[in-house]
Fold this sequence. Notes:
The protein has a six-stranded parallel beta sheet, with helices on both faces. The protein has a six-stranded mixed beta sheet with strand order 7-8-9-10-12-11. By secondary structure, the protein is an alpha/beta fold. β1, α2 (27-42) and β2 form a beta-alpha-beta unit. α2 runs parallel beside α5 (138-149). The protein is globular, with a radius of gyration of 20 Å. The chain has helices at residues 4-10, 27-42, 75-84, 102-108, 138-149, 158-171, 182-193, 198-206, 211-223, 240-245, 256-261, 291-298, 316-326, 331-334; strands at residues 16-21, 46-51, 69-70, 87-91, 112-117, 128-131, 225-228, 233-238, 268-274, 279-285, 302-303, 307-312. It has two domains: 4-204, inorganic pyrophosphatase (n-terminal core), CATH 3.90.1640; 211-334, Diaminopimelate Epimerase, Chain A, domain 1 (Roll), CATH 3.10.310.30. This is DHH family phosphoesterase. Residues 250-327 form the DHHA1 domain. Residues 16-168 form the DDH domain.
Amino acid sequence: MLTLTELKSLLATPQKIVITTHHKPDGDAMGSSLGLYGYLIQKGHHVKVITPTDYPVFLHWMPNNSDVIIFTEQQEKSAKLVDEAAIIFCLDFNTLSRINELGELVRTASAKKVMIDHHLEPEDFDDYRNWDINACAAAQLVYDFIVNQMEDEKGINKDVATCLYTGIMTDSASFRFPLATSNVYRIAANLIDLGAEHWKIHQLVYDNASEDRLRFLGYCLSNKLEVFHEFNTAIITVTKEELAKYHSATGDTEGVVNYALSINGIRLAALIVERTDKVKLSLRSTGDFPANEICKKYFNGGGHRNAAGGASEKTLTEVIEEFKSILPEYKSQLIV
């Protein structure tokens, strides 16, 4: 393993660095990645952000987004950068399977691997780790890395602050999750003091939908929402044909599950979507209900207690029925 002293010594001189994050990156993945990118660029390092896949258009406004390389679109260039890197920062994921084909390139690379993450049960592939399951976002841990480990709060300029605030805001559901502690609010306040325009960031992320996305949301709520009052559970299911009908783009299903969770009395909500290769599940819960346990136990996934995801090779109908069949097992926890 690499000590903090050794890592700081390595970062004291310009290095070739790659930053990567999980496939289909969300606000925290891109916020932490571009935030760290902005910091390291100031220090004279040669840095590239490589995402395994594309990501939502409503995140493309972020500072330095134009410098991001998408692996699926530039595989040869990405492989060369990974091979030549001295350090690879792995943000917002804890196992290399989360970065798809890019994972094996990272695993076999000679670079030192730095994991900055807050998910359970990390895989042992890294040389240095800033990991805390009680952090509300990877961006919070990037902030901690810069301010407390690198001892360099002055390295957080407006662009870095903007990215880190975006990551914390989105992964905490606008500071609504239990892990949005008073310390998280203090970090957010400091990021605002350092230049993050919180009102503008919220507008760019949440008030920036396409007409198709808004009509898709309306369709889901009117036609695809099922509520199981006996289990305090609500689900929304979507077929491939319905995605195509509304010209669904990457990120268009983001946040849809939260509408189901917002129903009075609901403790568990699920969005079950039929994709080209498999069926994806996104679960949200309130209180101490373990959404991540369901994803891990039944749907090859995991995540946090109140926000988790999974996938299945079964048909959409089979997955829906399987999910419904699980509810009686958790009835005592859902009805409180």
